[in-house]
Design goal:
The chain is mostly beta strands and about 140 residues long. The protein has a single domain, classed as Pnp Oxidase, Chain A (Roll), CATH 2.30.110. Strand 4 and strand 5 form a beta hairpin.
Length: about 140
């Protein structure tokens, strides 16, 4: 029987032209590992006669990771950010999340880093850092 524990999930990142071999991301924050916010996949319009019209629209898939301030994986993102700063270009990122509790593999394709916390917030203890990416598509499959 599986559980809903997220502690055995495996997250892998691959950056074309920088990290060609997938790298496991580790060192997540206490209560926040990853988040995929809701997306809007349709357009809806109500006519003046009360008839609803709607249609599918393509959508971006956001993914946000939250890493502890002392996570070694911060260096991966810092390296990516530095490379983008030097090249003045964006790197393609592909990402996978294996959630063993639900036996599901999520494959994020053709994305890029959007927002990030450049340094951890300096409070009583250093706070987690966030890294947000946006993807062209996500596919879920059983494993």
């Amino acid at each position: 029987m599986s559980t809903l524990s997220n502690s055995n999930s495996v997250l892998m990142l691959q950056v074309t032209g920088l990290f060609p071999v997938p790298i496991e991301i580790q060192g997540f924050s206490v209560d926040d590992m990853f988040t995929v916010p809701d997306v809007v996949s349709g357009e809806f319009m109500m006519g003046v006669d009360g008839k609803l019209s709607y249609g599918y629209v393509p959508y971006e898939v956001p993914l946000e990771l939250t890493l502890q301030a002392d996570s070694e994986s911060n260096l991966i993102f810092d390296t990516l950010i530095g490379a983008e700063s030097i090249s003045k270009d964006k790197y393609r990122i592909d990402f996978t999340i294996l959630v063993q509790g639900t036996s599901t593999l999520y494959v994020f394709t053709n994305g890029a880093l959007g927002t990030h916390s450049p340094i951890p917030a300096g409070k009583k203890v250093l706070q987690p850092r966030k890294f947000s990416m946006t993807y062209e598509s996500i596919k879920a499959m059983p494993v």
